[in-house]
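Q: I'm writing up a methods section and want to include an example of the input and output format. Could you take the sequence below and give the corresponding predicted structure tokens, formatted cleanly so I can copy it straight into the document?
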Amino acid sequence: MTNLIASAKKRIQRVRQSLGLSRATKTSAYSTQDSIACLDQSSAELTMLFPAESSYLRNFAMARYRGLGELVDLGAWAGSSTLALGQGLAMNDRVDCSRKRIHAYDIFIWEQWMSDIPWSSSLVKGYQNGDSFLPLYEKQIAAYEHLIATYPGDLNAMAEFPRDIEYLFVDVMKSWQLANTTIQKYFTKLIPGISIVHHQDYNHYFTPWIHLLMYRLRDHFVFEQYVEGTPSTVFAYTDEIPAEKLQQDYSFDSFSADEFEAAFEYSIRNTGKSAWPSIASSRVMAYIHQGKWDIAEKEYLPLKSRYGTENYDVAQIEKILRERSFR
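A: Here is the clean output for your methods example:
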């Protein structure tokens, strides 16, 4: 036992040093409050995550992960989510890390919208549309690369994930195709009663299919946590999903009008009040994705009246509708 404690302390000290934390900070083997607080203060230099989201990832890998399946990061981008998982896993001495437990996926190709963001970091300097930013990702996760397997490329073209998944971080459902790929190749590996699915885009205006799909699969998941003030919502996987539900190619046409409305009501009922404008905006965005502009315009009016354009998601819907009206 003495050797185990000493080993845990050495590992935690190495992690603290890599995060720039004081040697004088008290340590313990797993999940003391001071360890969690220190981890909350660290983040990647370049990130699109809120601090609370990064903290959730770190703390899950550190305090809850049992090694019954893999930690999968779909949509790693510049590596902040992968880094957070690595930081947490490095402090989890309950799990055998002799092999890589974290699996990170992204296409790692720079797009114009990334250049349009006013980054404060110099890491992005020089990247042009179409460039690979894999080196940027590798720089950010370098301290934990011994824990991480990275898979660059188009997720839609990749094979089904080969192992069971204990924690699935989903930041890749940007289209129906990617949503279907996620369900067909990754949800198939979830463990009933064990696995966690963390949707980073659940409370974001652009991705209405997430609400529809999670409502369709509601008998197999329960809401675990809305990460307050962020786009993230976390689900616990409770009951095995039948194969016929996993292998469908879903689209808006897969859902009746009644199911469509019930899906967004379900999401609002199970999240915090600060998420409601985003979910309501996503409902309007569903009409925009389908080219149903007249309905979108009509449904936008009560959305704007209730939540105002000070809300980011509502403002994005207004911007899309306004730009179309000027064409």
